[in-house]
């Protein structure tokens, strides 16, 4: 089974509020170890409303973000190494200007996270690999 084409690339009908809009560097997670957070490059979450992405640990994912009354909610779909997975999350801006929220894996565990405002990366975040890609490496 291979990962479908990017499913979450549509633009939201309601724009992401300016204080949330942009790229966020994930600096801490409550449940998952912080060591290895940057295994694939800086751990990042984009919240722009169009073509958003998530990269942390060995996860690469497409993100569909939308504003809520209290912050931003998102769904995501991607791969941890070569295993397909999906989930949801939410984020709120703290008084210190950092983003706090939760990332949930469908039928799996969840973790809180803390992120700081960041610049868009120079290199684009790669597409999530498909399970079939695992066997193409050799």
Q: Strand order within the widest sheet?
A: 1-2-3-4-5-6-7-8
Separation of the first and last Cα atoms: 19 Å
Proportion of beta-strand residues: 35-45%
Low-confidence spans: 1-5
Regarding quaternary structure, how should these chains be classified? Answer: single chain
Helix/strand-derived category reads mainly beta
Largest sheet: 8 strands, antiparallel, barrel
Mean pLDDT: 88
Q: What is the number of independent domains?
A: 1
Give the overall silhouette: globular
- Radius of gyration from the alpha-carbon trace, in angstroms: 14 Å
- What's the order of the H and E elements? EEEEEEEEH
Helical coverage, percent range: under 10%
